[in-house]
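Q: Fold this one first, please.
A: Sequence and structure below.
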Amino acid sequence: MLEVQNLSVKYREVTALSNISFSLSSGSLVGLIGANGAGKSTLLKAMLELIPAQSGQIFYYERPLKQQRHKVAYLPQRSQIDWDYPVTVWNVVMMSRTMHSGWFGRTSRQSQEIVKAALERVELYDLRDRPIKNLSGGQQQRVFLARALAQQADILLLDEPLTAVDKKTEALMWQIYNELRQEGKTLLISCHEWGNTLDRYDQLLLLNRHLVASGTPRQVLTPENIQSAYGGAIAPSTHDDHSEELLFC
């Protein structure tokens, strides 16, 4: 069980997150949704202490998460990655193994096999020697998913991993997400997708600087919650009365 308790973040005098509390079960696929500026990326970074929290605690199986950072893998937004950095696909994924070998230690045969398996899983092993700047957007996202896989973490925090990816990559990534869920991993995925895609998640967290709602897609995506989170920025589709069917206005 991953537990976030009363997490608050301020940027100067602006409250970015206010008293966020929720719990996630192992083997769950959780979508983190909300409007731009709602605090989705801030939440993921604060959970990892990449930015300071004003208050709050995070536990994984009743122990502070900060004492178990090796159990967490993080995939940042595309905009936070320098795609022109001169590094190959293989070396990007191998970076996930530095906690096992150290920055200047030799990588073990086991780490090499783990990296190979991760690249094969995302169907990029044949491109292992290619610079990441020469890949397509979907391939680049798959590289960083492979890096998360090679870390062999129990918790994966993914910040908009499906942004600007091709259909093949999207299908492959969903397949891997579902496999990880079956393996007992916990996935928290910040996303912008709407419509039937949200039905794929076991749980949704709806943010608007505070936690508006948490639960199944049907429990979360009510007209009242949507109004509270988006203020009318989106509205239910007139296609039918299914509350998960939403369109941007």
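Q: Good. Now the second chain.
A: Here it is, same layout.
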Amino acid sequence: MIAQFAEERIMDKPLLVSHVKKRYKNKIAVDDISFSTNPFECVALLGANGAGKTSTLKMIHGANTISSGKIEVMGFDVKKDLSTAKKNVGIVSQEDLLDLSLNIYENLIAHGLCYGIKKAVLKSRTEELLKFVDLYDVKFKEIGELSGGMRRRLILARALLNQPKLIILDEPTTGLDIQSRHLIWDKLLELKKQGVSILLTSHYMDEVENLADRILIVVAGKIIAEGTKDTLLKQYRKKTLEEVFLELTTKVKGEIDV
């Protein structure tokens, strides 16, 4: 298995966000949000640009400070024990930050060494992950030769090197063709079946529908609705998730603007 859970922590919530706020000077980007994720589950944060999604993700993996509230990853407090919390997180960000001077294989090895993974273990894990994301046969290709889909799969493999319990995906398939998107979705669904907890942001409704077990709709830093696709459709009497999203975000935005 790509993800291996320690038995003593398997019952912990992979992610627990409690009354979290993020302030930038006079602006509140994240406003008292609370949610959690479970093993074998994908939770999607759905919101327009500027809704507070990326600020939330950055606080979870320590790229942003938490103004108030508490975030725990596998029971470890991000404020008090960030280094341990980060060991349980894999990140697929919008920026790939791949080293153009290294090939596919070397990029993974270099990243794994930063985690302090022993060389023998790292080599085995790298080859396993390259097979998992269907890049093993091209593992010596230079980064500049890769298609967008191949780069995104490499970033996913990189995010899995530390065998994380939680994977954060920030717009993971933006700009990819439909075949590449579906290939990445298939890999993410495999990870979920193995017990990995996934936190996803995406502007693609079909992506959210394919991957997410629960959906949190975020407007102006607040979670204004939460549920499965079916419960949201039933609650708001709509035929599509897009219709639910448009109704809620337009209504709340109008109230805020007033």
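Q: Anything worth noting on the second one?
A: Strands lie at 15-24, 27-37, 42-46, 68-73, 76-77, 89-92, 166-170, 197-201, 214-219, 222-227.
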